[in-house]
Amino acid sequence: MSALKIKKGSNKHSAYNLRPNFSDMVERHTLAVIVDNEPGVLARVIGLFSGRGYNIDSLTVAEVDHEGHFSRITIVTTGTPQVIEQIKAQLGRIVVVHDVHDLTVEGRAVERELALLKVEGTGEKRVEALRLADIFRANVVDSTLDSFVFEITGTPEKVDAFADLMRPLGLVDMARTGVAALPRG
């Protein structure tokens, strides 16, 4: 007789259970982490992610309090709700971490990213690139006879859309800062 008992009608772990479990849906979250501004802190935070196989989609770090020596790390990551909760709990256990905020859960947040895009082209492609830059409110920060460098600020989706339109017009290089975010209100 087997010691394993399976509840009748339970197919939670069955390969035939095709109904999606909404707690297994992958979500994008923006985390704001306030840490001591000292050597090695970023390595500890990143080590938490790499050591457990979590991915970082965007990462920005800057000192936000010179007198208190605090920095803000803004991390955009994806995972199931359980994984996100685990990340927040593990971040909170790091000694140099003072505060962890999940801006996605705590309410609406303002997210912005800065990008520089180098577009090479002449003739109609050059004119079209300038027209699109005007529509997207991108600034020309460098210009030669064969290329432009555009500066664009906005949501990551806006930056992605602008880059997608610039690719066929001669996009040759791009640098992005990563997401900076603050809660609204």
UniProtKB/TrEMBL annotation:
Superkingdom as given in the UniProt entry: Bacteria
Coiled coil regions in record: none
GO biological process: isoleucine biosynthetic process; L-valine biosynthetic process
Pathway(s) of this molecule: Amino-acid biosynthesis; L-isoleucine biosynthesis; L-isoleucine from 2-oxobutanoate: step 1/4; Amino-acid biosynthesis; L-valine biosynthesis; L-valine from pyruvate: step 1/4
Alphabetized Gene3D superfamilies for the sequence: 3.30.70.260, ACT-like. Chain A, domain 2
Keyword Transferase in annotation: yes
GO CC term, one of those recorded: cytosol
UniProt-recorded Gene Ontology molecular function terms: acetolactate synthase activity; acetolactate synthase regulator activity
SUPFAM superfamilies cross-referenced by the UniProt entry: ACT-like
A Pfam family per the record: ALS_ss_C
Reactions mediated catalytically: 2 pyruvate + H(+) = (2S)-2-acetolactate + CO2
Entry keyword set: Amino-acid biosynthesis, Branched-chain amino acid biosynthesis, Transferase
Domain (ACT): residue spans on this chain: 30-105
Enzyme Commission numbers on file: 2.2.1.6
Function: Catalyzes the conversion of 2 pyruvate molecules into acetolactate in the first common step of the biosynthetic pathway of the branched-amino acids such as leucine, isoleucine, and valine.
Family: Belongs to the acetolactate synthase small subunit family.
NCBIfam families: acolac_sm, PRK11895.1
UniProt subunit comment: Dimer of large and small chains.
Protein's name according to its UniProt entry: Acetolactate synthase small subunit
Lineage: Bacteria, Pseudomonadati, Pseudomonadota, Alphaproteobacteria, Rhodobacterales
